[in-house]
């Protein structure tokens, strides 16, 4: 099979488009013919070696954890799926080597769910990691109908999905973004505010009594600002601030979860969740996809078409 690989840690320049052996399929896994793979910031962080302290990496390494594709073979005990099923997955394993930037990927069934009927391959590939991060962050903050939710980096891949999920659950949403993305946030159902100095005052102008939940998808002091406007300082969740627990909030490191993925697919098929795709590139241009992701200005998701 063709795949994107690296033989060492480094930047986008270490990625190559190469021929690799087809994956072996374990008893609780299926073999997926990849149609598209989502690109996430964690992918280039893995390749750069930033996660070496927590995950073993083996080379040659194929990056990528997001996938959308068609089941081509099933393991001996993978009774949940059949050949021809269309699936999505957040295929994070305990060690890093056999990722989703490839024509084929072997995925444990615990990482998969059925593809939403209403989303195309690009959108489906962009849903798993970002959608699960948003969904699990809202759950960790105990979000409920009627809550006022502040979403930092609301126009990004995770933030844009968090806005939609919160709105679908009956929450009111304030989202931070640059002014060029304010109309985009309004289209998702959020009330936009510009990030930067004075953010707390701008949030108070929209929510004089404070907000119920804050989700930090960007870091850089977002937790501190959130706690200035939260009614309950503990209802802040971050994926980017390593000190959030010490500050009384919650950290989320997204987990593969079939039930949560299925809930996202149901929201999509109900017309309550879509996946904005900022850029779609062919698999062999993965290095350029990394550069786009590293620039941090994508509105929605970056995906690779296989």
TrEMBL record:
Record protein name field: Alcohol dehydrogenase
Name of a matching Pfam family: ADH_zinc_N_2
Gene Ontology molecular function terms on file: oxidoreductase activity
Stored CDD domains: MDR_like_2
Organism listed in the record: Streptomyces noursei (Streptomyces albulus)
PANTHER family in alphabetical order: ZINC-TYPE ALCOHOL DEHYDROGENASE-LIKE PROTEIN C16A3.02C
Superkingdom to which the source organism belongs: Bacteria
InterPro entries (alphabetical): ADH-like_N, Chloroplast_QOR, ER, GroES-like_sf, NAD(P)-bd_dom_sf
Every Enoyl reductase (ER) domain range: 10-304
